[in-house]
Every structure is written in C-alpha cells, then in structure tokens.
Amino acid sequence: MNSTQSSRRAFLKLAGTAAVTTFLRPSLASADQPADYTLHIAVTPVEFSPKHILSTITYNGQFPGPLLRFKEGQQSTVDVFNDTDAPEQLHWHGQFLPPDVDGATEEGTPFIPARGMRRIVFTPRPAGFRLYHTHNRAAADLNAGQYSGQVGPVYIEPKHEAGNYDREVFLVLKEFQPSLSRGGDMAMDFLTPSAPDKQLQSTGESAMKASLAKGMPHGYEVGYDFFTINGRMLGHGDPIYVKSGERVLFHVLNGSATEIRSLALPGHTFKVVALDGNPVPALAEVPVLWLGTAERVSAVVEMKNPGVWVMGDLADDDRAHGMGIVVEYAGQRGKAQWLKPKPFHWNYMRFGKPNVTAADTKFDEQIHLTFAKNNAAENGFNQWTINGVAYPMEQMMAAPSFHLHEGKRYRILMRNASDDIHPIHLHRHSFELTRIAGQPTSGVIKDVVMVGGYQEAEIDFVANNPGLTLFHCHQQLHMDFGFMTLFDYVPTRSELR
Ligand SMILES: [Cu+2]
After folding, report:
1. Which of 4, 40, 330, 417 is the most buried (most CB within 10 A)?
2. How far is ligand 1, taken at its centre, from the CA of residue 285, in Å?
3. Contact at 8 Å (CB) between 35 and 158?
C-alpha cells in the first residue's frame, strides 16, 4: 500500500464518524497527519491493589490517564476515540481555549460521539500544571462523570523553565467505588482566614431547619471504599525512591469527583512554588497541603529526613483505605512510618504578595453571586442555586446570566450561604484572589478556589478570551444539581457603532 492510499483510507475512516464536523477550526493539521497524542475512552479493569480491582471508564486503559506534555504556544493535535456507548466531553482544565475545544457542552463544545472520535487541535496555554478530565454530568449515576477514572495530568512546558529541583513527581489523588450516603465526614474547619457572615449563616441555617422540620432527610452525599494515589492504594504501588539531599518537585492534583484532600509527609515540609500551575509570589513552606477538587499544588520537598515514610492524607480512615504513598530513602528499609502532623490551617494568602491593601487592586465591574442549598429538593439530592437560579439538570446550554465586555476586569464577589466548602472553577480564564473572608490579597492566580462555609471571597479576572464561559462548583454532586452559571461576551457600545 502506498502512502496516498493509506492517507486516503485514514480520511475515509474519519469521515465515517461525526468527527468530521469538528474540523471547523482553521488549522495546519490535516486529517492524515498523525496526532501528537491519541486517547481512548473505554471501560477497562483497573487494579488498585491485588484485592481491589474494578471496571471503570479510563483513558488508554490506565488510571490516571497518561501525562500529556505540551509546549506553550505550539499548536497540538489530540485524537480522542470514544469506545463507550455514551457521548463524552473532555475538558482541558486550566487552559485558555476557545469554547469549541474547551470541553463543556454548556459552552457549545461538540460531544465526542459514542463509538466515534474527534480530532482536537489547539494551542496549549498558559504554561504550567493543568489537567484533562470528563465534563459529563453524572447526576445519580455514580459510574459516570468524574466518579469514573477519566482524569489525567497535563504539563505545559514554558518557553523558559526556571526551577531549582532535581526531578519531578506527579501525584493524582482519587477515590473509587462510590456510594450514596446521608451525611459527610469531611473536614470543614481547615481554611483560614475565617469570618462567617452572620446573614449568610442565618439564611442557610433557617432554610435547613425549615426543611428538616418538614420531615426531609439530609440530602445525599457520596462516600467511597477505595482511596488511591496514582491509581494504587497505600502499600500497593511502587514507593517514591529518593536520596538524601535531593530536591523533589511534587505536582499534586486532587482528581476527586467530590472530596477535599490533604497531604503530609512526616518530617518534611513543602515549599509551594505554584498553585493551579501558576507560580506564586511568596514561596512559603507548609507542613500540609489542602486541595479542593481539581486544585493543584506544585511544591519542592528537600529530602533531609532519611527513613521510610507514608506520604498521606490526614484523615486516618481514608489513609487506612489507601490514600497514601510510600517515600523510601536509598539505603533505608522497614515498615513505612506515619506521624500525625500538628493541626494546620490552609491559607491561600500565605502565598500572595505581602502587605496588600484593598486599594491595591482595581476592577471595572463587580458581579455578585450568592450560593445556596435547597436541602434534598431534587429526588433526595440537594439542589444548588446561584442567585436563586439552579442551572438546568440537562447537559445543555442555558441562557447566559452575565454579559462580559472584552478587556474589562471583573470582580466576582462570592457569598456562600451554605455550610459546605465549594471549590469554585472558572473555565477558559485564570483569576486572581483579591479578598478572602474580608482580608485583601493579591498575586495568587488560580482557576479553582475553595470558598468556606458561610464565607465570602472575591476573585478578579480579565475578560480576555471571548466566547461562552462556564462558572461552576467543581464538586460533581453540586455542579450536576444546579451549581453552574454561564457568562457570555457582548460587544461594547463602541464596537457596535
Ligand atoms: Cu460545591
């Protein structure tokens, strides 16, 4: 077979799927050129330990999905084959992409059809630690969405890599075997600063009281049986082998559908260099990392306490069910040791610019968003609202609720009238933290931020990437049951003239 035949055959194969309709973006990549990466979405078995094996939806038959490395600003092609019976969405979390490749039905990204494929062509940016994951709704189906194994790390190499470390280790934290429960046991008191807003608290508490008085049970939560780091339960994966004096850069990703995770390495500290892949102004050292769903922390650990250690979650029960990984120094042996760290509060402001006042950051327009919970209102599941509106349960585009003007800097004031912590995510843009629980801050650039129970937080972003933009809580149960809203861009008056 000559090359003309083979490329023609490749084209016909592609043309036979719905994928051909997605070649709309002008691109140098043609159908007969090989992709930089090929991903297969399929139900496959995954072994978390020899006694813990289950079937779930994965990328390329593995969990986590393969680490995809890109070069900032260099156009790349990814072929995504969907070998399942349901349409899929693959979201490029943390990147500044157009809506047709971002990977959210709500923004208008076409599905990767069931038993079909889609070629995605895009220019990766910004540099740093990103991720890819499914953006399908799961609702009550705990086999779907991010309850499955559809999560993988992305690293976009900057044009100039600056960093003082010997090597990199990627860690993806995720639970499996979910089930519904009527109450959570997640830590809720680790965020600081904290200044519960009296009005938010009385609103939230009286709504809950009224619901319980009507005989409603508490809305469903999700719990898990298997806890893993890089797809293995504690004690069942390869240890991280280190040498004394080595500086290891850990890229930690919370790949959970619903849980907040913590991570400590006894006798060591983490020097945080980036949050959500973006370098921080202050390289603070901390004994514990806390991450909401989809958050990332990049931190350097200087290996200066020889031994065999458990690097794990602070929750004893979760660690006992697998949420940990062994760190073993060269020449050391024996059972891995865990030491409970002293109580530690997580404060994003620690990594920001020092001595910030409210006057240091300016914005053009403010958007007020209040988050609220209707207990058990949706078939026993909590319904979530933003400014009193629940996003439709169907995976669809809804009418945009906020209209952005390109080039303006927006400040979103978030008011949380519930006792849950919400990891809030903005698509296709980064934002800067500007106020947490009443205290001004600047310089921390993220794409997910945890907003504490009955707390206020403010984030600024520049409207510099036109197109539909989704804003939502990244907790799968919350986003699936209403906790989403859509922004669009509208022309300014001068553009209309
Ligand atoms: Cu939430």
Report:
1. 417
2. 28
3. no
Q: How remote is the CA of residue 384 from the centroid of ligand 1, in Å? A: 8
- Helices vs strands, H then E, count in the chain: 6, 32
Q: What is the b/e burial string over 351-360, where b = at least 16 CB atoms within 10 angstroms of the residue's CB?
A: bbeeebeeee
Q: Are 56 and 143 in contact (CB under 8 A)?
A: yes
Q: Which of 344, 345, 420 is nearest to 382 (CA)?
A: 420
Q: Ligand 1 center to residue 477 CA distance, Å?
A: 8
| Residue in the block written with tokens 């129970």 | 453
Residues within 5 Å of ion ligand 1, judged at the Cβ atom = 422, 473, 475, 478
Cβ count within 10 A of residue 179: 11
Residue with tokens 């600003």: 73
- In angstroms, what is the C-alpha Rg of the chain? 23
Q: For residue 146, how far is its CA from the centre of ligand 1 (angstroms)? A: 14
Q: Within the chain, which residues score under 50 in pLDDT?
A: 1-29
The DSSP result for 383-406, as a single string, is EEEETTBPPPSSSS----SEEE-T
CA distances from 336 to 101, 228, 309 (A): 44, 17, 5
How far is the centre of ligand 1, averaged over its atoms, from the C-alpha of 52 (Å)?
29
The pLDDT score that the predictor gives to residue 185 is 66
CA of 387 to the centre of ligand 1 (A): 14
Q: How far is the CA of 7 from the centre of ligand 1 (A)?
A: 47
pLDDT at 26: 41
Nearest to 414 by CA among 311, 483, 325: 483
Query: From the CA of 422, how far away is ligand 1's center (Å)?
Result: 4
Q: What is the DSSP string of 291-309?
A: E-TT-EEEEEEE--S-SEE
Kindly give the distance from the C-alpha atom of residue 420 to the centroid of ligand 1, in angstroms, as a whole number. 7
CA distance 64 to 61: 9
Beta-strand relationship, 422-426 and 469-473: antiparallel
Contact predicate 191/274, CB 8 Å: no
Task: Give the pairing of strands 409-416 and 456-462.
Answer: antiparallel
DSSP-derived 3-state class of residue 100: helix
Cα dihedral sign, 194-197-198-203: negative
Distance CA 497, CA 493 (A): 7
pLDDT of residue 184: 66
Q: How far is the CA of 4 from the centre of ligand 1 (A)?
A: 52
Instruction: Report the pLDDT value the prediction gives residue 143, as an integer from 0 to 100.
Output: 96
CB 487 within 8 A of CB 401: yes
Report how far residue 265's alpha carbon sits from residue 299's, in angstroms, rounded to the nearest whole number: 12
CA of 16 to the centre of ligand 1 (A): 40
- Nearest CA among 80, 137, 155 for reference residue 112: 80
pLDDT for the residue numbered 32: 73
